[in-house]
Write a structure and sequence with these properties.
Length: 464
């Protein structure tokens, strides 16, 4: 549910004109198209985390009652509505264990199914290899460990409530879940499942305040206490330089930034200009040291600076950040995939003014004076907050439903393909302590620790 914010949208609307009142008109001039900093393309994550293995004694789980096992079966039977697939969780094995009356077998198979299902509800079913350019940090494993959750569910006899509580809390996820129930075709259902998965790849709760850029939507939003207080058009990476999915902390806003050119852009042209016409390069605000392969180039603040009047400080290995641009015409396009990977932000003075006043504790006058000075100034945030660079291709339509967006980088298809294959393994496995190994000869390896867990197949608890 969206909360009422003490910093309301109307308050934000009042703040922005005050912030801009102190900003001179020259700061918003727009010269011809320029290039900004390039994303550093990182290799995809292709392996999943190894499951954490705990012994039966460490897990200290109560036995499964017949009622709890049947409740788990009921949840699995309805799990298609959660965007998952019942067959993944071996309901036949649970049925067979119930029918046989074998308590040890019931404990094993029900625990296996619960932990795998809870993993997929909390972290997503999709293996890392199908999550193209995904580098999100998901803290849910730390905040919601599965074994205490299972122990509570068995003790409280409330399997459905515990499993249902693992869903993302954002209203957009609830809209997707409702849309899945009314999907008219398998293809429509699949793309909704893809986007439910992407919500699960992120922290369950995005936090009280954050900035979110949805790349296929070409939009950036500022959220405070559940209220969207500012919305900005965005220019995102071209298909050849795609913007990755990540959630770095924003630590400050820099106005009148300098721009250190990456080697790729130096080689594309400015290096030749410096060599053949240094006066022209200086007129464009470039300064440099070295030459040839050692050439280092920085563009100084000014109307033609490729980063415009502001840059959001977001420390990450991809060199991704939100920034201004002097190329304002790009924001008029319907499809805005023009950048080298970073996210250009429309109305950047409004955006940076809001950041400086609301999150760095500066007055509108202080912000205006910093912009007008033309000097590089950093406003550090009192409390850093996350920036979610996301990739949702099904989003709320503003009318209580959802709408489909173009899959800009072709990232939906690998997730859909993964639906017909095994998903991620369980995050936690439960295994009995292995037997003591007694060496038969003096040269044999030392005995394994009695408390050391024995390896188990992915998704299997190893309870025997």
């Amino acid at each position: 549910m969206v909360k009422n914010s003490p910093f309301s949208a109307s308050a934000a609307a009042l703040l922005l004109p005050l912030t801009l009142a102190a900003v001179p008109a020259f700061a918003q001039t727009a010269p011809t198209d320029v290039k900004e900093d390039s994303v550093i393309l990182q290799p995809d994550k292709v392996t999943d985390d190894a499951p954490v293995v705990e012994t039966l004694a460490e897990a200290n789980l109560p036995s499964w009652s017949k009622d709890n096992a049947r409740a788990l079966l009921d949840f699995i039977a309805a799990v298609e509505g959660e965007g998952l697939f019942a067959k993944d969780y071996d309901p036949q094995a649970i049925e067979a264990a119930l029918a046989s009356g074998n308590q040890a077998q019931l404990d094993k198979v029900a625990t296996d199914s619960f932990l795998l299902l809870a993993t997929h509800l909390r972290d997503g079913r999709t293996p890392n290899a199908a999550r193209k350019q995904w580098f999100m940090t998901d803290s849910d494993a730390d905040s919601t460990p599965l074994l205490p959750l299972l122990s509570y569910a068995l003790t409280a006899n409330d399997i459905p409530l515990v499993l249902g509580g693992l869903n993302p809390v954002h209203p957009s996820f609830a809209l997707l879940k409702a849309a899945l129930a009314s999907a008219k075709t398998p293809a429509e259902a699949d793309v909704i499942r893809v986007n439910m998965e992407r919500w699960r790849w992120m922290p369950r709760d995005l936090g009280a305040g954050y900035v979110v850029s949805n790349v296929p939507e070409y939009m950036t939003r500022v959220v405070h206490e559940g209220v969207v207080i500012a919305t900005h058009k965005a220019v995102v990476g071209k298909p050849s330089t795609p913007t990755p999915q990540l959630n770095p902390l924003a630590t400050g806003i820099i106005v009148n930034p300098t721009w250190t050119l990456p080697r790729s852009i130096i080689n594309e042209g400015i290096g030749a200009t410096i060599a053949s016409n240094p006066a022209r390069a200086r007129a464009q605000g470039y300064t440099w040291t070295g030459k040839g392969n050692t050439l280092s180039v920085v563009q100084q603040p000014g109307p033609g600076n490729a980063l415009g009047v502001m840059k959001m400080e977001m420390l990450n290995p991809h060199a991704i950040y939100l920034h201004d641009t002097p190329s304002k015409g790009a924001f008029a396009a319907e499809k805005r995939a023009f950048s080298h990977g970073c996210i250009r932000t429309e109305k950047a003075l409004h955006f940076s003014g809001l950041m400086a006043v609301m999150f760095a504790g500066k007055s509108p006058e202080e912000f205006g004076e910093a912009i007008a000075s033309g000097k590089t100034t950093r406003f550090g945030f009192d409390k850093p907050f996350p920036v979610y660079v996301a990739y949702w291709t099904v989003v709320p339509d503003g009318k209580g439903g959802v709408k489909k967006l173009a899959d800009l980088y072709g990232r939906d298809a690998p997730v859909v393909a993964s639906f017909s294959k095994p998903g991620r393994p369980a995050a936690v496995l439960v295994s009995p302590a292995p037997p003591q190994i007694v060496p038969t000869v003096a040269a044999a390896r030392p005995a394994a620790s009695a408390s050391a867990p024995r390896a188990a197949a992915p998704g299997m608890s190893g309870i025997y």
